[in-house]
Amino acid sequence: MTGGTNLDHDARVELLCYLVVAQLVAHAGTGEWLRTDHLVESARMWTDSNGAWGAWLARYELGHASAAIAPNFLNVSALCDADSLAKLFTDGWRLDYRSPRVRWLHDICGAHLHGGGELPILGTPVHNLP
User: Fold this and answer.
1) 29, 32, 40, 73: most buried, per Cβ within 10 A?
2) 81-92, pLDDT tens digit by residue?
3) How far apart are CA 42 and CA 36, in angstroms?
């Protein structure tokens, strides 16, 4: 599945996490999920800024996965408004992996890619994170 690309499993998890957050940002701002062209552009921005190449199939697959996963986070109040979502970023559109919320999202995205099945149950502890 990685033939012709340098996008390894860890990078796929990071890209999926980024796309899920991009979906949530779009939804918080407009009430709509990312249009296909914006999803493609978001994935391209991430791959370009992270030195990924030859990843068009992964971008497609992970973009599709992000659209399926993101709605599961609508019940997490810390991920539903633009101000809270802005705190997940550092240096513009780079996710801040020092943030417990970003690490939590990353872990969930990793579990999704690893198992390919249902998402872990989204608990309330994230509401109490600093």
Assistant:
1) 73
2) 999 999 999 977
3) 10
**Hey, what amino acid is at 1?**
M
Structural domain that includes position 50: 9-117
DSSP per-residue string spanning the chain: --TT----HHHHHHHHHHHHHHHHHHHHHHSSPPPHHHHHHHHHHHHHHTT--S-HHHHHHHHHHHHHHGGGGTT-GGGSSHHHHHTTEETTTEE-TTSHHHHHHHHHHHHHHHH-SPPPP--GGGGG--
Whether 86 is in a domain gets the answer yes
Write the single-letter amino acid at 21. V
pLDDT of residue 127: 39
- Both tokens of 48, joined, read 């370009």
Q: Classify residue 1: in a domain, yes or no.
A: no
Answer whether residue 4 is part of any domain.
Answer: no
Q: How many domains does the chain fold into?
A: 1
Confirm if 67 and 23 have CB atoms less than 8 A apart: yes
Q: Is residue 126 part of a domain?
A: no
